[in-house]
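The passage that follows is intended for readers who have already worked through the single-chain material. We present the inputs for a multi-component assembly, then the predicted structure in tokenized form, and finally a short commentary. You are encouraged to pause after the input and sketch how you expect the pieces to fit together before reading on.
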Amino acid sequence: MNGFMKDYFRKNGALMGWTLIILVGFWTVMLIILPQLYMFDLSFHPHLPPPEMGGPKDHYTLENYDYLVFGAPGNEDGYNKVDLLVFGRTLIAAAFVTIIDLMLCYPIAYFLGQTKGGGFVRILVLLLIIPYWINEILRAFAFRIIFGDSGVINEFLMLFAIIDSPIDFIRANVALYAGLGYAYILLMIFPMYNVIESLDRNQIEAARDMGASWVTIHRRIVIPYAKPGIASGCTMVFMLSAGALAAPQILGGPSSLWFTQLVYQWFNTGGNWPQASAYAIVLLVACLIIVLTVMRLFKVNMGDIGK
Amino acid sequence: MRDQPLLIRIGMSLYLLMFFTYLLGPLVLMGITAFNSASFPQITPWEVFSFEWFSKLFADDRILEGLENSLYVGFFTVILSVSMGLAGALVLTQIWPKLRATYYTLIIAPILVPGVVIGISTLVFWAEINRRLGLSPDSFLANGIFLTVLGQSTFIASYCMLVFVARLQRYDTGLTEAALDLGASHIQAFRKIQLPFLYPAMASSAVLAFLASFENYNTSIFTHQKYATLTIILSQKVRLGIDPSISALAFIIVCLTIFFALLNEVRTRRAQLAVANGAPVGVVTGGFKAPGFFAGNPAAVILALFVAGIVATIAISQVYDPEPAKSVLLKEKRAAQQLRIQALQQRMKERRMQKEMKGPDIFGGKTAGEKAKSGGAVNPGKGAFGSIWKSDSLKSVIPTDEKKDKNGLKSKSPGVNTFGNVFAPTNLEDAAGSRKKDAPKE
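Having made your guess, compare it with the prediction:
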């Protein structure tokens, strides 16, 4: 290790070497590791006013996690049904959004990756990128305009007398799923597109020459080849949808909360930081477990993510 | 695609069309609502084409203040995350091989951690440091802009790092070695050899970092304190009540995005063409030659058309005055309202006529009744009885007394008429009703 450090400084010089170490050290230690550890630690502390922190009342406790599972002390139900339901629904809905996005994007990624159209494909890629640079809030706002009571869809349906009274898309969460799927669609397309683009067309030609059907080509050649891209896209979309806050706040129905909204409520409305930390940790751990399990099932490495 | 069955090709084209409608349709619709004068962002019913929401947008202090905060945060985030990302990428190429996988996982992890978690952890951690150091709660460590920059840089640096890693993979370390052998210092070798090679990556990662910072919501919502960024202001506006000035902002952002995307496309195409034609890049990128600029470059044509369209729109907005059209619309609306009021009055008259058929009112009781009603509307407190003491109602009462004997037989209930319908149940209702209506205002 010592030899390695000596080699490192010989290669970079003292000033460059130290600058790199300080920058990377600040990033990894002060921004990534310590804040997460401190939040983890805080989630095991009771909610106290600042002067009493570190005082005699400050001790390790499981009460914040207790609350998520069993509710407030003296709760007759036995379990904190409201919060647990929100938690479960968030994860299921995020998975649902991920699957919808995957199904929507696979044909596009395949088309873009395998077409040698030149200019046409470039224009399509450009059109794909444009919505991604529009603010998340504005994208959600656009869906409010479309799905609202007097929104475009309702007005259109009523114009042709298909329905008599407006359908409440917001309450039915249609707007939320459409908005979430829309928000992260690009993160699904690009990893897949990058991988499929590098697939040798001759493989597909050969399979077709040997009589493979259209379905078989995709099932046996394209999908196995694109697996890292698919895994990468699904991971991103799942994590981002489960951790989304803006879209549920703007598009969510009044009766259905997103788990991040609970975190936000504990933090801002309740001012209870330890409780909010506990909820955030639960969200983070649950998402990581799901993603790692799925990656293990599909035999994809961490190194493939983010390519 | 060309050698595929026709059915699949048609299906694919339809699918592409639907997909891009889903992708771009919402933005187009939102842009259109910015030009409708209706006070709710809507396309139907269309009122009048107007630019008023743009003026309202530029007069909105909170949005401008949010924009200012966003620019500050964006500026510092770009500096911090580009330098951390570059350092992270350089260290990745040199780190002890056994540590590399762990290190890579660590610096890529912030991309996968939900923004909410990063926001909370940044805030609680720096608040604790602030407390441990014994600083006041409003020291710079607890400053909203400082915390937002740190929170955002945590994961934006990872994006930058990925951009640098992609570029560094093509870097020949022999170049640095050669410079060192020729007597350059480490700083010189880095500044003169490696850094110029990384300029394109620095530019693209800076743009990426700024855009990511500008549109970030999940992290900033926890760390911003008093310094709300534009995104946060927008979210508050959208949640409290939406109006088309937000559509106007969206329209501007969409236009800027398209402009820069096309500009970038034109530059890339030009460089490609230059390489394809065998000319050195410097020749083509140097001078601006109009015909060459457009030759074989569809993106350039689109860009020119797009800019022309924007300029025309701005010009129209200076000349175009929606007021005449608006006043026409207002007149139409008023006329429609007038018709409705007339219809309502007609119906009320008919109803009253029917009532009077039961008890015909010959002695001007009706007028007194109407007076009572109007008095009631203006002065709810006096409504029911006030008009009795008015001279008019007295006048109408006096003749009644004289004529009573003559007409008494004809009217079925002369007593009612004597007091001019003041005690008619409808009158009381009117007065009570108007009192109720006015009560909340008072």
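Commentary: Chain A touches chain B through 95 residues (CB under 8 Å). The mean pLDDT of chain A is 82. How closely did your sketch match?
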